[in-house]
Amino acid sequence: ADLLTEAMSIQTKLVTANAEWSNHRVVGGYEPDEDGWVPTPGFLTETAIGCQTSIRRDARPMWLVIDELNRANLDEAFGEVFTLLDMDYRDEVPIEYGDKQVTLPLSFRIIGTMNTYDQAQLFSLGYAFRRRFAFVEVNSLLHTTDDPSLSDTPDPGTLSIDDDTERVVDIVQGQVPTFFERRSGSLRADVA
User: Fold this and answer.
1) How far, CA to CA in Å, does 130 sit from each of 38, 125, 127?
2) Torsion of Cα atoms, 130 then 73 then 83 then 43, to 10°
3) pLDDT tens by residue, 95-131
4) Residue 95, strand partner residues
């Protein structure tokens, strides 16, 4: 996620998912202050505002990176904003927090990471959430077997930073364009 967004000169906001996430934490709502109650954005809304600002200022979007995505109950945490993850509704339906609202830019993206090794012990990703994402498997740099001939993953001790970067580039060049080629007929062109 870091190398991809750095290569594209895209700013990111990083959050780590947890089981305590609520719609208020993700989207926002009213919070008390010394004068009463004020509308306060959650991290998704805050990043959407940052994305709009970044597009106006630098002509580049800002993306949200959620680490350990499957550690949160996403159906509960994202709630009604599931609709906004579909490109077709972004310019029609705003994110509402308190008495304020913001539109999710077409160029806004979420990159989520998840550790599939402990997937069975964590929240599962519901179909409503999964169908709004492309999944790219990034193999572990650690051997999963004692027999190196059974693994196509190199020994981490033999890798250099250049090797790691080359592996990420191979993944991006090999898997990401294929996804967009398959989907190109069904998505509206993104203005970014």
Assistant:
1) 33, 6, 5
2) -110
3) 999 899 998 888 899 999 887 665 555 567 777 777 7
4) 102
